[in-house]
Amino acid sequence: MNLQTLALVGAVALLGPLLSAGSRWRVPVVIGELVAGMIIGASGLRLVDTTDVTFSFLATLGFGLTMFVAGTHVPLRDARLRPALGRGALGAIVVGVVAAFAGWGLAAMFDTGHGAVYAVVMASSSAALVLPAVQQTRLGGPQLLPTIAQVAIADTACIVALPLAMDPERAPVAALGALGIAAVALLLALALRWADRGDRWRRLRETSKAHELAIELRVSLILVCGLGALATVSHVSVLLAGFAGGLAVASAGEPRRLARQLFAVTEGFLSPLYFVWLGASLSLGSLFASPAYLLLGVLLGVGALIAHLSGVLLRQRPLWAVIAAAQLGVPIAAATIGAETGALTAGEQAALVLGAIVTIAALAASTAVASRRTASPPNGQDAAGEAPDAATSVSPPSR
After folding, report:
1. Pairing with 166, which of 172, 177, 321, 330 sits 20 to 30 Å away (CA)?
2. How far separated are the first and last CA of the chain, in Å rounded?
3. CA–CA separation, 355 vs 300, rounded Å?
């Protein structure tokens, strides 16, 4: 990889924000970046080599940081969610059971043997997509909190379960590696909370700001790389390392300055590079060459929606269930791991991404409907038919 390739990747990645800014449907930026990668990669002009060592390494780092940021978005410190954890956990379990049956059914239908992977993918949610959607549509009310709790629980559980589902034969080794990463992340969380209580963390941040040292960002990058190295040694995916590190930071409260710094480094460079690399790695030709994979992708998306709509049995509103079904991190992580390990065919990798796009399209349609309802709510009610209440805001706290 050279500077010309890096410039090309950065330039085509601008398709992401251009599509997002110019669309009334709130298309996630990553969709445009994936499409850009498909255009210049294996599905299109073949201008980049995704097997290049430097390109792959930068993409892996971007993958880890993307999952790190996703972990910081989980509202662990929001005390208002704690009473809703029971209902949220029950909702996640019900969705997981339905997704398990659907996953094994799809694996049998397409004779792939990857029922566990499909089940984990369809049961997953994406806090990084759902929380902004809830904020944008001004959904409120105490009944929404179990849905947010469900999303946070499903997001975390599925990210932990995915590496085990991807390689069942190595599940014991992977489980030990995951426990090791979890232990390190827990120790880190305790250390951050200890530093925060003793006012040490605040003094360090003030020193960093006064002297422009970016210490918070440096520590975060060291954390991601250190946990990533541990994951590599213990044969666990970098996705778990990055997400665990993000959860550790979220448990102590992510400083606004660090959030801005991470946004600059991740969203400004490494995350777009990762998604372009992933898009370039996908082979859309395999979808059209084998209509079975195209059908698999559509059914994965529809299956995820049906699995989450089972929450209606627990009196969850259908609109919330559809929003909670939005997924991105887990399907893309599965496609990435499948590409790196050869566990999934090129057609299955593309099908997983297609399934995620189906759920994102459903999210976009749902938020559009909710936005129209919010524009003229009857009798002072919000889009969910409830009186808006600032105390039920679900935006993750930051300091």
Report:
1. 321
2. 39
3. 5
| Residue 374 scores a pLDDT above 60 | no
Question: Position of tokens 């050869």?
Answer: 342
pLDDT digits (tens, 9 = 90+) for 80-117: 667 778 888 999 999 999 999 999 999 999 998 899 99
379 contact partners, CB below 8 Å, separation of at least 6: none
3-state secondary structure 87-128: HHHHHHHHHHHHHHHHHHHHHHHHCCCCHHHHHHHHHCCCHH
Q: What distance separates the 2 farthest-apart alpha carbons in the chain?
A: 61
Can you give the pTM of this predicted structure? 0.72
Angle between the N-to-C axes of helices 29-40 and 271-281, in degrees from 0 to 180, rounded to the nearest 10: 50
d(CA 180, CA 289): 42
C-alpha–C-alpha distance, residues 367 and 390, integer Å: 20
Q: Are 244 and 226 in contact (CB under 8 A)?
A: no
Q: What pLDDT, in 10s, does the model give residues 163-210?
A: 778 877 776 777 788 888 888 888 888 887 777 676 666 777 777 777
